Every structure is written in structure tokens, then in C-alpha cells.
Amino acid sequence: MVWFWVLVLFTANLKLGLAHIHGGEQPLAKINILQTTVALHESASISAEPVLLGLKGEDTEWITVNFVNPKPSLDDWVGVFSPAKFDPSACPPVNERKKQLPYICSAPIKYKYANESSSSYAKTGTASLRFQLINQRADFSFALFSGGLSDPILVAISNPISFTNPKAPLYPRLAQGKSWNEMTVTWTSGYDIDEAVPFVEWGRKGDLQVRSPAGTLTFKQNSMCGSPASTVGWRDPGFIHTSFLKDLWPNFIYMYRIGHLLYNGSVVWSKTYSFKSSPYPGQNSLQRVVIFGDMGKAERDGSNEYSDYQPGSLNTTDQLIRDLDNIDIVFHIGDLTYSNGYISQWDQFTAQVEPIASTVPYMIASGNHERDWPNSGSFYDTPDSGGECGVPAETMFYYPAENKAKFWYSTDYGLFHFCIADSEHDWREGSEQYRFIEQCLASVDRHRQPWLIFSAHRVLGYSSNDWYSQEGAYEEPMGRDGLQKLWQKYKVDIAFYGHVHNYERSCPIYQNQCVNKEKNHYSGTVNGTIHVVVGGAGSHLSKFSQLIPYWSIYRDYDFGFVKLTAFNQSSLLFEYKKSRDGKVYDSFTISRDYKDVLACVHDGCEPTTLAS
Questions:
Q1: What residue stretch is flagged as signal peptide (predicted)?
Q2: SS3 string of 289-357?
Q3: The model's pTM
Q4: Structural contact between residues 557 and 438, judged by C-beta atoms closer than 8 angstroms
């Protein structure tokens, strides 16, 4: 009987988790592309212009697509395909018994309904659409379909168009290296090592520039763990290069540009970028950190938006770009692209964040939509990654982990010490990751780095999200069981989480008890950790429970992000800003001295002796 009720409770919790997982559907997954039938009509046509893109070095261009359909309907749509040519010979059979090959076996990279810009399309059969394309290492074509998304009928195919150099080095993303004075530059190109030698030319602004080599990685279709990543969602990711810029002087502006030395002696260059090097650990100066989760990507041309999958993504991105002069480092704590197995979306995400990631370190954490896949070693046996099982995230971005497959690491930025956990691998007491978390928290010198931050994707602390409240614990199951004694022992200031798509701040809390009655200003001894859910950066929002727990100080059902400002070793400002206007809607300050960190608190006292 006991085992029966255990099974009932487990099943109930699993259903609650799955209800959250499937709260939004990747727009490309709506297209039943393998069932496409061909009915090319001699009176139907579709064309795209301009034909040659990037003539002035642009990596993004707007395209006009004109089309005519003699038998129009409201569910006609236009898909963007890259590479431009359909190759049925590469498709696996749809019907194994009949060995029937589909005509198209790769999903488009984006799509729009044909009547989006013309309400009269269903009557006239004539319309035009505007698409924004980024350079993705291959040519493009546009296809007109009838039959809707579930039963596509190919009516017309456009002329191919392409960028002047599809292989160009693009979308640099910075990240902290394994030491405070090292910056890494990662980018994507179409050049393998047998075609060109990748490097970064860099130096302090106004000084002599030097060159540092880069390593090159990629991944193949057989690296994917399942569909759609291994089937209709597959697209060649190109080559991902990383260079390590070492021995940086603190607080200097560095200029850099990416190069590929071709074997004929010429060099293909990127644009020139700049970044400010990190402060020395413990440096007493103004330092500003932005933290958020679950942003995803969206299309500025409005394509793929019919499911309202990530409605806040562009607002968050644009607010950060506008305030970039006042940001030093960014943490995106999981659920980066929501590509869910559609690999083309990784290019589109890196293009979207490029103005940010090319200027300040863009540090990431692993979420369920990056890692989770059944029987792949993830802690949660769910299909949330769409078969990616962590491979694109681990390859497309650098992070200073000892093992890229184990997505936990520490990093320093001036007065801050960050411990980034991986909630998609076992974090419980006795696990390898638990030992890392304790080592990370224990290693910080709080005299030099007073602000200790813990972060993970799933809510290992506190959240009054509706499905957590139904489970009764207001947390990820088993979330804080073993971790809270580490947060208390090492006096973690703030713990951040994503996964839940809203904003919520707790009181300073330990063992479900608020240890401070203040709400807007905290001073003196560190009695407990403040837990913050900041997963509302872009994806569809998550509802709160109707009951507001006593520990919940502020809740917001909206899109936003957090900014931390350390003025010095004794003063920290916390701000929650909404993505739609960039204004502050919740804030608090912390003021304290070193002796307050050393002070003995419940379950956080150093051992003493009576010996003299």
C-alpha cells in the first residue's frame, strides 16, 4: 500500500512537470514537413530580391518576397529554406515498408502566413512579404505552400539568394576564461581548418595589436540524441572557433577583430569590436551585473510568432543593448534559444545577442531545453531539448567548466564570486556536483569578494509558481534539501533561478523561516539567503499560485531581468527591471562590513576552542 501511494505521488508530480514542459510549442515543430506533397502549378510563382546579399559587408538583410497563387487559401504559407536546394536523396524513408522518400526532410528556418501583409490575398492570390535574413553559411530559397502547416502542399519555389561570403566569421560571443585576466572569444564561420587558420587580432586601444590562435570545433548529425535534432531539425552548424586572450590588464578597453588566414595568403576579416577587461578580484570599484533566464529568441520580421512562444525576448534584448554602457557582465541562466532540436535557431540566437555578447562577457548556464533527453545522462528523463542533449550549447558557447558536459563552474568578477550550478545533473548531497558547489562556496575570500552569488536554472530554492505550489514544497522536488545548509554555512547573499517564467523575490530565508523583517534594505549579519526567480526574460509567462506565501516579498507576472550594482565592498544595489520599459519595479540595498560576514549565525558558525 505504501508503494502504491508513492507511485501515485510520483505520477502526479511527473504530470505537473510535463504540463509545464509543454506549455509552449516550438513554432517550427508545428510543420509536418515530411508529409509535404508536390503540386507545382504553372501559374503559381514566387520570387525573392535582392539576389546577392551583404554587398557592403552586412551580415543581416531584408528580403522582399513576391508570390502569386491561382488557388489561394487562408492557410497558405511561405517557408524559408537553407540550403536552398531540396535534396530528397538525403531523406530517410517516410514509409519503411514501401521505401517511400519524402520530398523535403528539413524544416524551414522560419515561415510566415501568406496573408500576413495583405488581407485580400485569399481573393486575389497575390501578395508580398518581408523577411529578415542573417548570414547562415548557405544560400536560401522561399517556398509557397498550401494545405496549412499540418498537410503542406508545395506550390512554387523561388530563385536562390545568398550572401557574398556565406562563410564569413560572425556573431562573436565573449566569456570569462578560467582566470580573472583571461577573455575568450567564440564565433561561427564556414571555414574548416583545412581551408583557413582562425585567429583573433587584439590589443589595448591605441596599442600594438597581437594575434592569438583559435581552436575549431563542430558537431554532426550523429551527435544528436534524437528527433527532431537528428531528423527534420538538423542543419549544419558550421565551425565554432574559440580564442583565449590572456594576461589582460584590468579595466582596460581592448579592441579585437576575427580573422581567417586563407591558404592563398589573404585574410577574411570580421568587423572590429571592443570590450573592457575584468577588474582585479577584490578591486573596490563600480561593477554592474545583469542576470536573467529563459529569454529564447524571436524574429524581428514577425515570422514564427504565431504561437506567441517567446513574446518578451526582443524587448529584453533591446533593453540590454540600450543600457550596454552600464553593464559589465551578463548571466543567462539556462533555456537560451528554445531551439528544441531545430539547429538553425542557434545561429539566429547568436545573431540576436551579438551586440551584447560581443561587448561584455555573456555567461550561460544549462537548462532543460539545452540538456534533457531520455537515457542520455540528464537528471530529468524528459525530451525538452528536442534531441540536442546539450551538444549545441556546449559547443556554441564557452564557459569555464572543467568538463563541458558537466555544466557547473565558478567565475570571479571584481567584488563578486559566482557559483553556477547545473540543475540538469544531480546536485544532491554526495554527488560530484554537490562537492563542487561546496568547494566553490568555500573558496571565496569574502574580504576581497564580499558578494557571493549562487545560480542554477531550475528553482532549487523558493518559488510560488502554480505547479510548485500544487506539489506543496514551493521548489523543484529535492531542490533545497541538501543545498540550504551550504547556502547558510557559507552565507550566500542571493540565489538566482530561471525555469519559472516570471519574477519573484523572497525574504532572506533559512529552513522556511524569514530571518529578517526588512523588505528594501538589509544591513549587518548575513542571516539567510535571498532567493530570486528571474525566468521572465522572454518565453511565455508562468502563472503564480493564488496564495501568496509569507516569504514572498514581490511577485511580477511580466517580462524582466535583474541588475546588480556593487558600489564598493560594503554596498550593493539590487534592481528588477521590466523589459517593456527598462524601469525599476522592485529593488533593495545591502549594506554591511566584513565583520558582518564573519559573524556567527545559526548553522553558520566556525568551530571555536576554549584553549588560549
A1: 1-19
A2: EEEECCCCCCCCCCCCCCCCCCCCHHHHHHHHHHCHHHCCEEEEECCCCCCCCCCHHHHHHHHHHHHHH
A3: 0.94
A4: no
E strand spans, 229-304: 239-245, 253-262, 267-276, 287-292
Q: Would you list the DSSP string of 5-55? A: HHHHHHHHHHHHHHHHHTTS--GGGG--GGG-EE---TT-EEEEE-SEE-T
C-alpha to C-alpha distances, 44 to 141, 145, 154, nearest whole angstrom: 16, 11, 10
Q: List the 37-38 sheet strands across, edge first.
A: 37-38, 153-157, 141-146, 77-81, 110-113
Closest CA to 277 of 412, 386, 167: 412
Domains 37-163 and 281-598 share a fold: no
What would the mean pLDDT of 420-448 be, rounded to a whole number?
A: 97
Partners of 131 in beta bridges: 63
Amino acid 470: pLDDT: 87
- The answer to whether 287 touches 266, Cβ cutoff 8 Å, is no
460 Rama class: left (phi>0) / alpha (psi -120 to 50) / beta: alpha
Q: Is 403 exposed, middle or buried (0-12, 13-18, 19+ CB in 10 A)?
A: exposed
Q: Is the pLDDT reported for residue 235 higher than 90?
A: yes
Q: Are 354 and 240 in contact (CB under 8 A)?
A: no
Return the closest-CA partner of residue 115 out of 74, 64, 173.
Answer: 74
Give the mean pLDDT of 6-23.
Answer: 38
- For CA atoms 513, 518, 519, 520, the dihedral sign is negative
Give the whole-angstrom CA distance, residue 527 versus residue 509. Answer: 8
The answer, yes or no, to whether residue 327 has pLDDT greater than 80, is yes
The β-bridge partners of 217 are: 240
Determine how many CB atoms are found less than 10 A away from the CB of residue 191: 21
pLDDT in tens, 139-177: 999 999 999 999 999 999 999 999 999 999 999 999 999
Task: Tell me the mean pLDDT in the region 453-475.
Answer: 93
Q: At what angle do helices 344-357 and 313-322 cross, to 10 degrees?
A: 20
CATH topology of domain 281-598: Purple Acid Phosphatase; chain A, domain 2 (3.60.21)
CATH number, span 37-163: 2.60.40.1930
What are the tens digits of pLDDT across the range 23-32?
Answer: 468 999 999 9
Place of cell 571565496: 444
Q: Distance between CA atoms of 354 and 338, rounded to whole angstroms?
A: 17
Cβ-count burial 355-372 (b if 16+ within 10 Å, e if not): ebbbbbbbbbbbbbbbbb
Q: What is the pLDDT of residue 93?
A: 67
